[in-house]
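In the current project phase, work has continued on tokenised descriptions of protein folds. One protein thus recorded appears below exactly as we store it.

——
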Amino acid sequence: MKHTLIIGGTAGIGRELAISLYQDGGKVTIAGRDAERARSVASEILSSIDAPGAIDGIAADLSTPELLPASLALVEPIDHLVLVGMVRDANSIKNYNVAGAMKLATTKAVGYPTAISSVLDRLSPLGSVLIFGGLAKDIPYPGSTTVTVVNNAVMGLVRTLSVELAPIRVNAIHPGMVEDSPHWRDNKGLFAQMRPSIRSGRFPQMADIVDGCRFLMENRAANGVNLTLDGGQQGG
């Protein structure tokens, strides 16, 4: 029973990945900012899905990296670490929100490496680390400056960590607009506007992103990969 720790696993894609692994007989620990919520989500999955795996919830907040070593101290040995947690930020330069920018940058540029460092002594050498970026790395939009910079930093993390942590594999996944995710699914007008720019004619679904995550986690040849899954979106 392989053990996966998903930080940011209480909702959206992280939750769907947790369910997929649990259904296939994996052991999953989901972490969120609030311990009670993480345990509640784990219990909900256990009670609603009859599967051979195991699942539990703990608290871990990537935006406060100084607390991560203590938060993750009791996590059992793991085969895969998945860092999904992020902070949403629409932040124009004209009215730049420094506090919001700092929280976003800290979450990924500092929180991701700190989480990895905090469990490195329990991470299998045959295992993997998967981190989340996003399409703003390639297609900026007004207000995306911090997001664009930070998601390019995720690409840099993959390059350096895949060298430093070898033989542990390190990859990143960069989703586009995910049509059925909690963040996007109510934006029908935006999807209608953007659909002509999607070469496949179909926006990614959470199941597509989960499938990509599992490929990067399980394929032993996938290392140092930044995988974009956006349906072939064309930049402006």
Q: What stands out?
A: The mean pLDDT is 93.
